[in-house]
């Protein structure tokens, strides 16, 4: 007996642990939303290219577009143009779109549109980059100024990260004569980046320009310049103006390097303007979209990977254990008397079609009439099988009559009574009549009311949309429920109704 108890405890612990771990993995690692109403941000980015075509020669417009292997997932990328050919090429690690046309004249407008989301971006590839670079040639006064700046930088730095930070800090010190000489009177961000790159190259520290877009709605913006360097494991990002380290979460890398955002042949006055707006999408729908566009394939191995029609069936089936758990608690802890365990659950399923109020009324009417017929057949001294056959036929006829009258009276809800399980009603009538004969009318009435109450409560829980979503999305929760059911199987304590039943003993 002791070994059996230990075995049961181990089994319960194993089931509950596995259920909790799998559910936690889905929520915290895979990022599956806990509620169906949860939404995620979508960013719509429009880049509008305007220029004036010469009209005398072919037009070729090239523009950098973002890489697709970032922390954001591209849901849609489109190139909107009129009578232009479109192609995508890779140049020095960047993506470049090329619009081309044989003839074009006057003002021209091209659009690039990108839809992004942050969630389900998947595992990022391991970062790679250069860890050494040759020095940029410099002579004369510029060389002396650069060496004078590098001496204190080396003294106040301990690694690549602090070396770059100290360099940016020195270059932004406008009162330093050496800095003034290297800047040559031009304190623009681009020129500061050029001086920073010069100083870092002398120390053989690689540096790369990064042009970013800020994900913020309803503001006019141009690409913002950042600097980055590879330390052997990760990319380190720096703001060339403030020295701020670490690329903010709302920045999207558009392209890297020294190239201009847009280049044009056969035209002039090219201008690029960015428009961003933010919207929201249901998290599960978003997961399905990203599952098609990324390597994140957790939906393929979940119930969401089934055909839609099959999903609808499983959304009903997977809630049956919830109904069974309700009956288990009501019977083993509450002491409620019902017609078995599964009869109330099956009646609760029928209530999904008839709705609760109409279903209770139909159940009461059909059961009452069926009991009357069963009582009459008892006087004919029929065997059980013929008696059940007659009752079943009577139930079918009664259901058809109710459906017909409901239709004539305009009560379309009454048509759903045809889906009420006839066999369940027949067996319910039979078992209630036997209970009536064996233990009296009051006990049979008590069992009927208990069955109806349990079916009603089970139906209310089984049709809660939030609970249905949670169980369907995280089916490992059923393992936790099985562990609870196993624990309930060894319960030998008092039931709630027995506390009232033996109340007299407590007084003594």
TrEMBL record:
Transmembrane region(s): 6-28, 316-334, 354-373, 385-407, 413-432, 444-461, 467-487
Keyword set, alphabetical order: Membrane, Transmembrane, Transmembrane helix
All residue ranges annotated as the Inactive transglutaminase fused to 7 transmembrane helices domain in the record: 25-184
Cross-referenced InterPro entries: 7TM_transglut (IPR025840), Transglut_i_TM (IPR025838)
Domain 7 transmembrane helices usually fused to an inactive transglutaminase as annotated: residue spans: 261-505
Signal sequence extent: none
UniProt-listed Pfam families: 7TM_transglut (PF14402), Transglut_i_TM (PF14400)
Domain of life of the native organism: Bacteria
Protein name in UniProt: Inactive transglutaminase family protein
Organism from which the protein derives: Aquipseudomonas guryensis
């Amino acid at each position: 007996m002791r070994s059996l108890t230990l075995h049961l405890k181990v089994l319960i612990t194993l089931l509950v642990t596995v259920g909790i771990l799998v559910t936690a993995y889905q929520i915290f690692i895979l990022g599956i939303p806990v509620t169906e109403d949860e939404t995620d941000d979508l960013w719509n980015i429009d880049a509008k290219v305007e220029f004036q075509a010469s009209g005398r020669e072919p037009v070729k417009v090239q523009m950098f577009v973002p890489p697709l292997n970032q922390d954001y997932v591209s849901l849609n990328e489109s190139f909107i143009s009129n009578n232009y050919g479109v192609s995508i090429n890779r140049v020095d690690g960047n993506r470049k779109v090329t619009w081309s046309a044989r003839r074009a004249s006057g003002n021209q407008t091209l659009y690039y549109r990108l839809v992004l989301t942050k969630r389900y971006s998947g595992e990022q590839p391991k970062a790679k980059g250069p860890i050494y670079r040759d020095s940029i040639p410099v002579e004369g006064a510029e060389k002396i100024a650069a060496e004078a700046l590098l001496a204190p930088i080396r003294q106040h730095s301990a690694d690549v990260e602090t070396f770059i930070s100290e360099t940016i800090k020195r270059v932004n010190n406008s009162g330093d004569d050496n800095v003034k000489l290297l800047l040559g009177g031009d304190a623009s961000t681009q020129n500061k980046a050029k001086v920073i790159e010069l100083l870092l190259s002398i120390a053989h520290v690689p540096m790369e320009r990064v042009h970013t877009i800020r994900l913020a709605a309803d503001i006019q913006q141009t690409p913002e310049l950042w600097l980055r360097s590879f330390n052997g494991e990760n990319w380190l990002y720096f703001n060339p103006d403030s020295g701020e380290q670490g690329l903010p979460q709302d920045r999207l890398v558009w392209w890297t390097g020294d190239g201009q955002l847009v280049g044009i042949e056969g035209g002039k006055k090219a201008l690029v303007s960015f428009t961003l707006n933010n919207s929201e999408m249901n998290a599960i729908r978003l997961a399905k979209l990203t599952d098609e566009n990324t390597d994140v394939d957790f939906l393929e191995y979940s119930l969401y990977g089934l055909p839609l029609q099959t999903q609808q069936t499983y959304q009903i089936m997977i809630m049956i254990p919830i109904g069974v758990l309700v009956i288990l608690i009501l019977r083993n802890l509450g002491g409620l008397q019902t017609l078995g365990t599964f009869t109330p659950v099956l009646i609760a399923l029928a209530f999904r079609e008839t709705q609760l109020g109409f279903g209770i009324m139909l159940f009461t009417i059909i059961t009452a009439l069926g009991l009357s017929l069963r009582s009459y057949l008892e006087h004919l001294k029929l065997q059980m099988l013929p008696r059940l056959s007659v009752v079943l036929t009577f139930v079918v006829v009664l259901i058809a009559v109710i459906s017909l009258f409901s239709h004539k009276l305009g009560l379309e809800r009454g048509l759903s009574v045809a889906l009420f399980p006839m066999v369940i009603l027949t067996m319910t009538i039979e078992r209630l009549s036997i209970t009536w004969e064996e233990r009296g009318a009051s006990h049979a009435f008590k069992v009927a009311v208990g069955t109806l109450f349990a079916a009603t409560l089970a139906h209310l829980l089984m049709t809660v949309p939030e609970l249905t979503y949670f169980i369907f999305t995280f089916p490992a929760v059923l393992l936790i429920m099985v562990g609870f059911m196993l624990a309930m199987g060894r319960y030998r304590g008092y039931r709630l109704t027995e506390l009232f039943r033996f109340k007299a003993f407590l007084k003594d």
